[in-house]
Write a structure and sequence with these properties.
The structure holds two protein chains of two kinds.
Chain A: H1 2-18, H2 22-36, E1 42-52, E2 58-68, E3 76-83, E4 91-95, E5 103-108, E6 113-117, H3 133-136, E7 144-154, E8 157-166, E9 173-181, E10 187-194, E11 199-211, E12 215-225, E13 231-241, H4 252-257
Antiparallel strand pairs in A: 1-2, 1-13, 2-3, 3-4, 4-5, 5-6, 7-8, 8-9, 9-10, 10-11, 11-12, 12-13
Chain B: H1 2-16, E1 19-31, E2 43-57, E3 62-73, E4 81-92, E5 96-103, E6 136-145, E7 148-156, E8 182-183, E9 192-202, E10 205-215, E11 220-225, E12 231-237, E13 239-251, E14 254-265, E15 268-281, E16 290-300, E17 312-321, E18 329-337, E19 343-353, E20 357-367, E21 383-391
Parallel strand pairs in B: 8-12
Antiparallel strand pairs in B: 1-2, 1-21, 2-3, 3-4, 4-5, 5-6, 6-7, 7-9, 9-10, 10-13, 11-12, 13-14, 14-15, 15-16, 16-17, 17-18, 18-19, 19-20, 20-21
The chains are: A alpha+beta, B mainly beta.
Chain lengths: ~260, ~400
C-alpha cells in the first residue's frame, strides 16, 4: 500500500501545486488586461454612433469624450454631445468607481442647470443606442468576477474565452462571454446575456490601433441586439493621448464650460 | 504692409473660426375657456428664433458665446420681444474661471419651484412657469478648490420682469404696466447687486450655499392709475438680502432634494422651503423605459400673505423617459394647495423627429382657484401649447 500511495502523491503533487481554479485564471487574465492598459494618463476622442433599427432606419449621434485615468479608482470621463442638435452642448460628467455607484452629473445648457443624476441605472440605453451605460463606462477589474472557459479563437486570432459576472445587482446582465486576444490582451468580442440568461447582444471590436506604443483602442465597436434586431456602430476618431487634461478639467465648472 | 496683410487674412479667419447653431420654433397656444377680458385673445400663434454663436481660442482657455433671442406673437405685442440671452466672454485659468458679459446662471435642485435661483430675471411672457430667463449683465469670478467651488458675482444692470400685454392671456386683472416700474434704490436699475455661492459634493451629497444682496427679481405690485386713466398694477422692485441652501442626496434610485431660503426686505422677512424626492423605477415592465415618481412639499412661512401661490402645497408628478431613439419624454403633475381646493395641473412632453426637428407640447389647467389665491386671475386661462422646432 505504502509505495502505491507515495507514488500517487508524487504524481499528483506537481499538479496540485500548479493547478489554479478557472476563477483564478479568469481573474489573472482580467488583471493582465488592466495592467497593460494602465498609465495612459488621459485622452480625448471623438465618438460617432450610427443607430439602426430592424427596418434599417438610421439615426446619428455625435459626441466628444475626455477621459482622465485615476489611480486606484475608476476613470473620470466627460462626454459632450454635438448631435442630435436639440441636445447639442449637453454634457455628462462621470466619476466611476471600482466598487459602488458612479458619481454622475448632467449639464443641460438651455437651463444652465447641472443635475446630479442617479447612476444606478446602468442597464439603460445610452442615448437611445444599443450600448448600455455599463457597456461604455470605465471597465474596472473589480466590477466583475471571472471564470476562464477555454482556449479559443476569434477570426483566426488565438483567444482566451472568459466568462465574467457583474458584481453590481443592478446590472442588466447575468454574464458576459469575452474573447480576449492572447497576444495583445484586448477584447475582440463580447456576448451579453440578459437577466434571464438569454443571449441579448454581441459586441465586436474592429480596427485596433496602438497608441503611445502601448495602448490598443478599437476604431469601431459594433453592437448588435439579437432580441430587437437593432444595432449601433460606435466609431472612435481623433484619439489624442496625454493631451494635457488634468483634474481641473473634470468638475462642475468645466462641465458647464465643456460645450 | 506685411502686418496689415496678415491681419486682413486673420480677421475673417478669426470670425469664421466659431460655429453657428440654434433653432427656429413655431408655436400655437389654444385657450380652453373664454377670457376674463374681451380684449384678450383666444388663440395665439408665434414664431421664435434663437441663433447661437460660439468660439473658443487660446488652447480652449478663452471662449465667446452669443445667444440673441426673438419672438413674434400674433396677439400680444408684449410677448413679441427680443433679448440677448447671452453675450459672454469666459476665461478658464488653472483652478479659477472668470466670465464677463451677459449671462445666465442656475442654482438649485428642486423641480416644482426654484427658490434659491435668484440671479436672472424671469422672462414671464415666454412661459408662466417662470423657467425662461432674461440675460443678466455680470462679472463672475469662480475659484475651483479641493473644498468646493466658490463663485463671486457682480451684477451690474437690473432687468425688469416681462409681463403679458393687454391683449395677452395669462395675465393679472388689472394688467401690469411695466412703464410704471418703481425701485427702492435711488440708483434704480443701475444698482450694483452682489452674490456669492459655495458649492461642493461629498460622496452622495451635493450642497450649495448662497447669498444675494441687491434688487429683488420678484416685484411687489401697487395698484395705480396710469397716464391713460386705467387702473393698472405698477411693479415695484425693492432691495433684498437672501441666503439660500440647496441640498441633494443621491441614494441609489432615490434623489432627496431640499431648497431653503431666508429673505429679508423692507416689506418684511420670511423663510421658505421646498423639499422632496424623485424615485426612478428603471426599465419598467421589462422595457427600456424609466418611470420617475416625484413628490415635493412647498412651504412659505408668510402663509396666506405670501406673494407666491405656493405657501403650503404639495407637488406630485411622474416623469416617463422612453430612452428611445427620439428621446421621448413626458412629465405630468399637479401642485395642490393644502389650505384650499386649488390645484394646478401641468403636462410637458417632447420627442425628436429625425436629427433636426423636435415637437413638444404643454398643457396647464387651473382648478377651483379661490379669490384670495395669487393664481385667481388665471382661472380662465387653461391652455394647450404645441411647438415645432427646427435646429440648425
Amino acid at each position: 500500500m505504502k509505495p502505491v500511495l507515495l507514488s500517487l502523491l508524487l504524481i499528483l503533487m506537481p499538479l496540485i501545486a500548479q493547478a489554479i481554479t478557472p476563477e483564478e485564471r479568469g481573474l489573472e487574465i482580467a488583471q493582465e488586461i488592466e495592467r497593460r492598459d494602465t498609465g495612459f494618463h488621459d485622452f480625448k476622442a471623438a465618438m460617432t454612433m450610427l443607430l439602426k433599427n430592424k427596418h434599417g432606419e438610421e439615426s446619428l449621434r455625435d459626441m466628444r469624450n475626455q477621459t482622465l485615468e485615476v489611480e486606484n479608482d475608476g476613470d473620470k470621463t466627460l462626454v459632450i454631445f454635438d448631435e442630435p442638435r436639440d441636445v447639442k452642448g449637453t454634457a455628462l460628467l462621470s466619476f466611476s468607481h471600482k466598487t459602488g455607484d458612479d458619481d454622475q452629473w448632467l449639464y443641460l445648457p438651455a437651463l444652465k442647470r447641472v443635475k446630479r443624476i442617479a447612476s444606478r441605472n446602468k442597464s439603460g440605453p445610452f442615448m437611445g443606442s444599443e450600448f448600455a451605460y455599463e457597456d461604455i463606462s470605465s471597465q474596472e477589474v473589480e466590477k466583475y468576477t471571472y471564470k476562464y472557459i477555454e482556449e479559443s479563437s476569434y477570426e483566426g486570432k488565438a483567444s482566451f474565452l472568459l466568462e465574467r459576472y457583474p458584481v453590481d445587482p443592478n446590472s442588466g446582465y447575468t454574464r458576459q462571454q469575452v474573447w480576449v486576444d492572447q497576444e495583445r490582451f484586448i477584447p475582440l468580442k463580447i456576448e451579453y446575456y440578459d437577466r434571464k440568461n438569454a443571449l441579448l447582444k454581441t459586441l465586436v471590436f474592429r480596427g485596433y490601433q496602438q497608441y503611445l506604443d502601448q495602448y490598443w483602442r478599437a476604431d469601431q465597436m459594433y453592437m448588435e441586439n439579437h432580441q430587437t434586431g437593432k444595432s449601433t456602430l460606435l466609431s472612435w476618431k481623433k484619439y489624442d493621448f496625454r493631451s494635457g487634461l488634468s483634474d481641473g478639467d473634470f468638475n462642475k465648472n468645466s462641465l458647464k464650460r465643456a460645450r | 504692409m506685411k502686418v496689415w496683410f496678415c491681419i486682413l487674412l486673420l480677421l475673417p479667419g478669426f470670425l469664421c473660426a466659431g460655429e453657428w447653431s440654434g433653432y427656429v420654433e413655431g408655436q400655437g397656444r389654444y385657450f380652453l375657456q373664454d377670457p376674463l377680458d374681451s380684449d384678450q385673445s383666444d388663440n395665439t400663434l408665434s414664431l421664435a428664433f434663437q441663433p447661437e454663436y460660439f468660439q473658443r481660442w487660446d488652447n480652449d482657455k478663452q471662449s465667446l458665446l452669443f445667444i440673441p433671442f426673438a419672438r413674434w406673437d400674433s396677439q400680444d405685442d408684449k410677448r413679441s420681444h427680443t433679448d440677448i440671452r447671452e453675450l459672454i466672454w469666459t476665461y478658464a485659468g488653472n483652478g479659477w474661471e472668470s466670465r464677463v458679459g451677459i449671462g445666465k446662471v442656475f442654482w438649485g435642485v428642486t423641480e416644482a419651484l426654484h427658490l434659491v435661483d435668484v440671479i436672472n430675471q424671469t422672462d414671464l411672457v415666454e412661459n408662466p412657469d417662470g423657467e425662461q430667463k432674461l440675460g443678466q449683465p455680470m462679472f463672475k469670478l469662480s475659484l475651483e478648490r479641493d473644498w468646493g467651488i466658490l463663485d463671486f458675482y457682480l451684477l451690474a444692470g437690473f432687468r425688469e420682469r416681462t409681463f403679458p400685454g393687454e391683449d395677452g392671456r395669462l395675465r393679472t386683472h388689472p394688467r401690469v404696466d411695466t412703464d410704471l416700474a418703481g425701485y427702492e434704490s435711488d440708483r434704480e436699475e443701475r444698482h450694483l447687486d452682489l452674490a456669492i455661492r459655495w458649492s461642493h459634493f461629498i460622496g452622495d451629497w451635493d450642497i450649495g450655499l448662497s447669498h444675494f444682496n441687491g434688487t429683488s427679481r420678484d416685484p411687489l405690485f401697487m395698484p395705480t392709475m396710469n397716464g391713460a386713466g386705467e387702473i393698472v398694477l405698477a411693479p415695484f422692485y425693492e432691495l433684498m438680502r437672501q441666503t439660500g441652501l440647496d441640498l441633494q442626496a443621491t441614494k441609489g434610485d432615490w434623489l432627496w432634494k431640499l431648497e431653503a431660503i431666508h429673505r429679508s426686505a423692507d416689506s418684511g422677512s420670511y423663510n421658505a422651503a421646498t423639499g422632496g424626492f424623485e424615485y426612478t423605477l428603471v426599465g419598467i415592465g421589462e422595457s427600456a423605459m424609466d418611470l420617475g415618481l416625484l413628490a415635493e412639499y412647498l412651504y412659505d412661512d408668510r402663509q396666506d400673505a405670501a406673494t407666491t401661490p405656493f405657501e403650503n402645497d404639495l407637488f406630485l408628478a411622474f416623469r416617463l423617459t422612453a430612452n428611445d431613439v427620439d428621446g421621448s419624454e413626458l412629465l405630468a403633475g399637479i401642485i395642490k394647495d393644502l389650505d384650499s381646493s386649488a390645484a394646478l395641473f401641468n403636462l410637458e412632453t417632447s420627442r425628436r423627429i429625425g436629427n433636426l426637428w423636435k415637437v413638444s407640447a404643454q398643457a396647464r389647467l387651473w382648478f377651483n382657484v379661490p379669490e384670495d389665491d395669487p393664481l385667481y386671475p388665471f382661472r380662465q386661462d387653461d391652455y394647450v401649447e404645441i411647438s415645432l422646432s427646427r435646429f440648425f
